[in-house]
Amino acid sequence: MHQYLRATFWILVYMALVLAPLFALLLGPVPAGGGFWVDLSLALGFAGTAMMAIMFLLTARFQRATAPFGIDLIYYFHRLASIGAFAFILAHPLILVARDPALFGAMHPAVMPWHLWAGFISFGALAALMITSLWRKQLRIHYDEWRRAHVLLAVLALVPGVAHIAGVAHYSATPWKTWLWLLIMLSCLATVGYVRLLKPMQMLRRPWRVVEVIEERGSSWTLVVRPERHAGFRFLPGQFAWLTLWSSPFAMKEHPFSISSSAEAVREVRFTIKELGDFTRRIGQVKPGTPVWLDGPYGTFSIDISRAPGYVFVAGGVGIAPVMSMLRTLADRGDQRPLLLFYAYHTWERLTFREELEQLKEQLNLEIVYVLSEPPSDWQGETGYLSEEIFARHLPADKAARECFICGPTPMIAVAERGLARQGMPPTQIHSELFDLV
């Protein structure tokens, strides 16, 4: 209940931040009405700009605000809300031009006033931001390059956007209303400064170092890191952290990885990373002694938050990493609650943590259902891909009382969520870890 109250509080804060500028503009003297469509166009422009400003706060990783939701859901909401803000801002000029086509004449570059130029620059930057984010992979934009461009485009969209509002001076002609928008803009720029300057400075004072690199099955590697000259941090089993490797914390090259070690481990954090992309394919080349910086922990994907008399885990590929953190923690605690793990992979030989999982079956009240898409000839277990039929064959009778954690490729998550719900697991007890958002 405490978690739901905190979530409700932050949702109300978000709504207040988005709507406050809109309602504040109605205070004091207001211009003569231009009619319903003009007012609607202006309201959409104001709301879209306010939503765009709040995006800076959503991605600042303020732990207190993100804790009730999980930062993966915050980023997912950021994506959807950005689409909504773009739609509002796009509708703003379209409505005005549809109402009065003569406005096209004022948009000629030779006669266009500066505040319209500001509006065009803002909209162009926002459009570029949306295109490069929604179709980054199709455009083959490197993740690190995209992140730097994303910040620059966001600032280039917001600052001219606020200048456009101040220049038009419709509903914002009084000084305090102009200063309200300037304060919103300065708050966003201050947030960028905090994330890109202050936080990296704090991380520099809390370095970590790689002490061991362990090769795992399935082209995966486990980095064992320990804090230097500080106590590190405590985390919940299943959480993740942003890791900066081979670069300064100022370089904007941090990457999120799930922690795979037990939460009961003292002064040690493990990350199990699969060779998949430009950054991760070099993980095996990391040498002991390499300095790293961590920003975390984050996430609500944890048995310590969603408590239950038993658990169901669904993992695909390297999605086993946060599940291993939870299983290792339960083993260290001597916990004997019933556990069921569905683990989907291609081949038996490349199954990450295969040997340790069999050992954990002896320490825990754990049942494992392996699902192989390329099984060996003598395989007696489940084959193909995870499906509702596989869940139906193995889910326990008390499934409605258990909490379920799913981590893996996005298509697998969708299949698992749908199949588990159809088999009687309450949707509110199904938790998924989402990272493939950009």
UniProtKB/TrEMBL annotation:
It is a multi-pass membrane protein. The chain crosses the membrane at residues 7-28, 40-62, 74-96, 116-135, 151-173, 179-198. It is found in: Membrane. Gene3D superfamilies: Nucleotide-binding domain of ferredoxin-NADP reductase (FNR) module (3.40.50.80), Translation factors (2.40.30.10). Residues 203-304 form the FAD-binding FR-type domain. The keyword Membrane applies. The keyword Transmembrane applies. SUPFAM superfamilies: Ferredoxin reductase-like, C-terminal NADP-linked domain, Riboflavin synthase domain-like. Pfam families: FAD_binding_8, Ferric_reduct, NAD_binding_1. It comes from the Bacteria. Its cofactor is FAD. Its main location: membrane. Keywords: 2Fe-2S, FAD, Flavoprotein, Iron, Iron-sulfur, Membrane, Metal-binding, Oxidoreductase, Transmembrane, Transmembrane helix. This is Ferric reductase-like transmembrane domain-containing protein. It comes from Geoalkalibacter halelectricus.
